[in-house]
Prior knowledge:
Amidase signature (AS) enzymes; alpha/beta
Amino acid sequence: MNTITELRAKFISGETTPTEIVKATLATIKEKDGEIHAFLAVYEDAIEEAEKATALYKEKGVDTPALLGVPIALKNNILLKGKKTTGASKILENYTAVYDATIVKKLKEAGAIFVGATNMDEFAMGGSTENSAFGPTKNPVDTSRVPGGSSGGSAAAVAMGAVPAAIGTDTGGSIRQPASYCGLVGFKPTYGAVSRYGLMAMGSSLDQAGPLTNLVADAETLHNIMAGKDPMDATTISPDTYEEVKNKDKYTFGVPKHFLAEGVDPDVLKAFEEHVQLLKEAGHEVVDIDLPLFEQGLAAYYVVMPAEVSSNLARYDGIRYGLSVDGDDLLAVYEKSRAKGFGAEVKRRILLGTHVLSSGYYDAYYGKAELARKKMREELASTFKKVDFILTPTAPTPAFKLGEKSEPLAMYKQDIFTVPVNLTGVPAITFPVGTVERDGKSLPVGVQYIGPHGGDARLFEIGKSMYDERK
Length: 471
């Protein structure tokens, strides 16, 4: 599949047309998705939009929107008006969105053509896309393995060559981890850079939408279109309010060596160390740093996130919308609807979140986790006075086998390097740095660059330098 930049150049020159590309996209999905299951829905009416885009290119050529005619896949927890938006949950199996999410509206205005809704872990809860109520997604690199999660469907849609880019959401690594497993670029913005209006809320203080692409430059293009202040989301921030983060010719990278000492696959660590050497050869400085609080992020995350899940998912009660199961009284309707509509992982997180928010436990658990979060932000702010970026592997292992990590704690540990980024609200990008051999397959391995608050543009610049220009 071509990149966004390549597609636009071909559209303008007349080498190909949006109609031809969208037809090819739909054909690829039809050919491959029976095995991969990246999509929950495919939009055949995308051809009509492509024909309009083709006509506009013939009329205006270069004077057209930046994404005109580019096929994009959309994670199915982001509202697209008139289309089923289920969050991969039985409780919303027949829900049709009645408005566009802000980011969808912006992408439409830029000319993007949505070709389908991608599979995901139910309500974005999981790290493998095995928790979808409609069946798991497989990794196109090795179909015996997971694509990561919760944006595994979006990652698989790009990795199998159906689309040049897809949109996912990242609450604790749900863009970056599947990007690593599928050999893609994944970007999680500064918290508030992108509107959450029209995203199904999982963890409101953690969620951010972002791109999965083949190049850093494509991720930058999509992010810059989606980003910006939104009157419908009070948490959004304008780019001109960021602290000034200037680009440099040479950067200092901090590596939390103690953080990498345990639990990282030796082959993943080897690929990571090879990338460190590449940074040094490019003239950048790499130094050891200590992040003792940052390293406790996983524990804090699995208190804060379930608490927010418990609150956000209370709206799915069998009364207002979604699945409703008859009961003898109101309480029975609540109980039966939620019992039938939610999967095991969602129930687990609701129960945990309700517990940490309950009387007698709030201060001991949730209050302590929020205090730890505050201290983590202070630790990072201090660290970014000494280094420009923090460098870690994206995930401690390559993609694992389907069903391999059915025990919840084993699954949660896959998020060890990604969740602190969401807790502290800073941006991070991942891109491939090599492969490791498993069962005769070359599995991708990603590296994660973490930037300071508002350092999104700087991450794109270093990413293009260290990935796009070397690919």
